[in-house]
Amino acid sequence: MSGYTEEYIRQKLTEKLEATHVVSLKPPEMDIRTALPWVTIVAAGLFLRAAISLHSYSGQNQPPKYGDYEAQRHWQEVTVNLPVSDWYRNTTDNDPLYWGLDYPPLSAYHSYLVGLWARRWHNESYVALHESRGISTDQHKQFMRNTVLLLDVLLYLPAILYATYTVRKRLANDRSEVAEWTSLTLAVLFPGQILIDNGHFQYNNASLGLCVLAVVALLERRTLAGAVLFCLALNYKQMELYHALPFFFYLLRYCFTGWDKSSTVLERLTTGVSRLAVLGVTVLATFLVLWLPWLSSLEAAGQLVHRIFPVARGVFEDKVSNVWCMVNVLVKLRNFPNTTMALVCLLCTLLAVLPSGLHLLLQKASTIRSFLYSLAVTALGFFLFSFHVHEKSILLVALPVTLLLPLEPLAACWFLQIATFSMFPLLHKDGLTVPFEVVDESDGCGGKFRVVVVSSQFQGKPLLQRHRLVNAALEEELKTIHAFSQKTYTPEQWAGESGP
Question: Which stretches are annotated as coiled coil (predicted)?
Answer without folding.
Answer: none
